[in-house]
């Protein structure tokens, strides 16, 4: 780049005088000299017959063309109107002369010895097509020409054969013509276009006057530059520049998380759209004054604003975009045509809460340094940095910013040229922002990938940028985070309308009141089914009333907290409903929790009474509580069956559910009847359960989803179907239950839904009408697969925390709405709930911008039981409500508003907003539907005597599944066995909170300000263990499936599934694959009791699950193995079917239907012992006998 050159036409930037002086000093070797550098590029030797290598910039364009042939982003088209006496012949000769002067315009490309090289053709005249459209109106001709130019730009361009620049002249009248030009970027950049017009203007004027070309010969050609660049790149000067870029981009992020509307494809098509805008002169004047006052340039102010926009949109504090440099780093290059422009990665790291002028100072320094080292081509920077390469995104940056454009109209003698169509809309990046001065105004455009953004999203981003520019001009000393971006439409129309959710519900506003009302309507209908037992509404009501009267006698009433410790059963439902009828609030105590955790919860709520099943009585400390057995009929025999008089009202507590707590202890969340009543009434109004519906209840009562699973069907007169205890982990059992009980409605966490979709026979669940998903982020691929394979069933994505009565938003996953989505949104607020996306000062953020999600309205819980400080921190005064005492719950979730991707007709007029979940702002995670505070696990780890310091993070294994990983620094002189450590953790934490791997570190990584750097925690490695390799076909098949599910290269037969990264959901996935891939009956119980391949193989054989009898026995001819005999002591029997055909079957396995066992003395089967070999790879045979020993 020439410092004194106005490089706007090349897309570079303009600097202040002091900037120019600094850059010049950096560039000149003499330090204090201001002399122009001597030319250092010379012509190639004429004797050099080898085609010159393509320059670095040409290599980039060549590579992109190979990756995306004929992409629109690789060429530019222009259409000009020419008014005046146009000498077409002089113009044609002038173009030919420019082509003669510049080899680049006669160059094509070919691979020679594995490298792209420049093939420079000899000059010869080329005619420019002249098209006569004088019979058309001007308007029609210009419209036709525009379409024609677009088609030509889309057409194929062969880099090997050319031509790479095409031109047409269209005659409309003697004094009006159109000129269309389409060119490939490999031969041209924007400064080259200025050179082209400058030379053509001078030559055209001379030729039209009958004079020769006035231009002197060129000192060098573009190919000479390419040869010089190749030799320069390894010089000490170049190495110093390259080292700067290595330092500057070390650890840079690979992407910026923008609000994409569509999932990123494996490769961008290059098809783009363009949205233009104008920054008014009064704003521009203040921005220029700001630049001058901070010793900066307008470009730097614009770039800082753009980086601020990206920071606000993405939440990423480390931003890298590219800005163009002219690339003409030597004086002799300035008059050449060719592809010189270089893209410089500009990195901004935002810490704290800087004001705009503070951030401007940083961007100024970074930009100056970048342009001082612009000599290194981007291609070389990429090679030196070696970032991860992926065809779906550009390495180092995906966003470009050009703040120095000035598209001045070209000159051609006395003719007037007006640009009718020009400038690219296509782009190979996510976004390309371009701004340039026209007079006193700034004209700008965002080019964006149509593969990623909808037009309305890009349009809103432009409006936010314009608003932000005006705010910067108004008060540059404000923190960037507080500069307004929101438009008036968003503030006063859209966001208030999207939170207008008021609905007036009638009827009893308590859970038990709703159910008593339903009992009166349908007393004889079946209320719930558990295995082979059904209970009517009247029977359920009577049983719950007995419990309620007994509890009343023990002093239970409003605000009394009663523990309930029972497995999923009829007794559990009776206990929960009985507590509510007594006026109390239930506290579910999960029997699968460690005894210490249950004891803490009972003590924390000071439960005067705990309801249990008799076999679980030992889990509950009885010192301070009365413990009653729900399944002891004698306990309740004398109690009344009439409804007790109501004592609890809508604002009394209904339940307290405990969630993970960051202090090392769980925290209780008390919810009122009014909150959950509103939730159930919305659900019934929306989904309309009826008497013919059956709702599956499979969520443990200790999780909030269970609340609506229990009480929604009972409120609506439907049938509640209870899964057996532990059945929620068995996809095959759930499938059979859905089919046999004709279930219409079920809930799945998304990860379990993915496993359920893998289960053979999923499509047989023909009665399933609706599936509710919540608990964790729903992957678009899982949603799309469900709606494709279950066209008769609806899928709904719900979101909500325990602190807001289960769910607060919902989105219907309609097939057309899922098309191309990166991630399904969590929807808009349900009735009488409000959702706000706010910044740290409780200001609403613009649509599309990330912030923290806050919840207001009817469902907000009271706070945390016995934790006033935490309650005050997370439940804050509602600044948007006029109700006295109204509060918002801070979810800790990052989210943003966006427009509904595909609104349904039922959504009504006007744009509809939905919330998109972005992750967490703290260290809480959702894993397989479980809400986990990493701090709670860390606190328990830190109490272990072997551990000095600890951290916990979520990491992916080799198959994309997430797992908890514990990182520990050991106490001095201590060692730790990961298995024993997990066992000790299991004494205080539930199974779902136990880390899947333990990594021992010398020290925990820290950020520069001394905080734990979670991103720097290493991924766990699972080195090969010393266990035994598989010995049999059965073990080999199981080892392969273990490794596949866990994402490991190998697994031995002695590896414990749950100690090498496995967890309950992965276990369900493994069981499903054992069933579907191997045809072997396997239950979750089998894996949990036998977590190694060696023990699982034996267990499956002993249970009769191996091989897949159902498939084999349906054949009329039985199949046996013919492998060599291993165990001469194995006892076998001969099986004969009814048709007299023979085969073999190991003794001890169940006899298949239609077969009888016939023992023969001394018979031995010529097949392997069933414990040692799998029953696969078989072929039909008749009877095979083994008489005495292998030698026979």
Automatic annotation (TrEMBL):
<dbReference type="GO" id="GO:0009366">
    <property type="term" value="C:enterobactin synthetase complex"/>
</dbReference>
<feature type="region of interest" description="Disordered">
    <location>
        <begin position="27"/>
        <end position="52"/>
    </location>
</feature>
<dbReference type="InterPro" id="IPR023213">
    <property type="entry name" value="CAT-like_dom_sf"/>
</dbReference>
<dbReference type="GO" id="GO:0031177">
    <property type="term" value="F:phosphopantetheine binding"/>
</dbReference>
<dbReference type="GO" id="GO:0072330">
    <property type="term" value="P:monocarboxylic acid biosynthetic process"/>
</dbReference>
<dbReference type="Pfam" id="PF00501">
    <property type="entry name" value="AMP-binding"/>
</dbReference>
<dbReference type="InterPro" id="IPR020845">
    <property type="entry name" value="AMP-binding_CS"/>
</dbReference>
<dbReference type="GO" id="GO:0009239">
    <property type="term" value="P:enterobactin biosynthetic process"/>
</dbReference>
<dbReference type="InterPro" id="IPR000873">
    <property type="entry name" value="AMP-dep_synth/lig_dom"/>
</dbReference>
<dbReference type="InterPro" id="IPR045851">
    <property type="entry name" value="AMP-bd_C_sf"/>
</dbReference>
<dbReference type="InterPro" id="IPR005153">
    <property type="entry name" value="MbtH-like_dom"/>
</dbReference>
<dbReference type="Pfam" id="PF13193">
    <property type="entry name" value="AMP-binding_C"/>
</dbReference>
<feature type="domain" description="Carrier">
    <location>
        <begin position="1029"/>
        <end position="1104"/>
    </location>
</feature>
<dbReference type="GO" id="GO:0008610">
    <property type="term" value="P:lipid biosynthetic process"/>
</dbReference>
<dbReference type="InterPro" id="IPR009081">
    <property type="entry name" value="PP-bd_ACP"/>
</dbReference>
<dbReference type="Pfam" id="PF00550">
    <property type="entry name" value="PP-binding"/>
</dbReference>
<dbReference type="InterPro" id="IPR036736">
    <property type="entry name" value="ACP-like_sf"/>
</dbReference>
<keyword id="KW-0596">Phosphopantetheine</keyword>
<dbReference type="InterPro" id="IPR025110">
    <property type="entry name" value="AMP-bd_C"/>
</dbReference>
<dbReference type="GO" id="GO:0047527">
    <property type="term" value="F:2,3-dihydroxybenzoate-serine ligase activity"/>
</dbReference>
<keyword id="KW-0597">Phosphoprotein</keyword>
<dbReference type="InterPro" id="IPR010071">
    <property type="entry name" value="AA_adenyl_dom"/>
</dbReference>
<dbReference type="Pfam" id="PF00668">
    <property type="entry name" value="Condensation"/>
</dbReference>
<dbReference type="InterPro" id="IPR038020">
    <property type="entry name" value="MbtH-like_sf"/>
</dbReference>
<dbReference type="InterPro" id="IPR020806">
    <property type="entry name" value="PKS_PP-bd"/>
</dbReference>
<dbReference type="InterPro" id="IPR006162">
    <property type="entry name" value="Ppantetheine_attach_site"/>
</dbReference>
<dbReference type="GO" id="GO:0043041">
    <property type="term" value="P:amino acid activation for nonribosomal peptide biosynthetic process"/>
</dbReference>
<dbReference type="GO" id="GO:0005829">
    <property type="term" value="C:cytosol"/>
</dbReference>
<dbReference type="InterPro" id="IPR001242">
    <property type="entry name" value="Condensation_dom"/>
</dbReference>
<protein>
    <submittedName>
        <fullName>Amino acid adenylation domain-containing protein</fullName>
    </submittedName>
</protein>
<dbReference type="Pfam" id="PF03621">
    <property type="entry name" value="MbtH"/>
</dbReference>
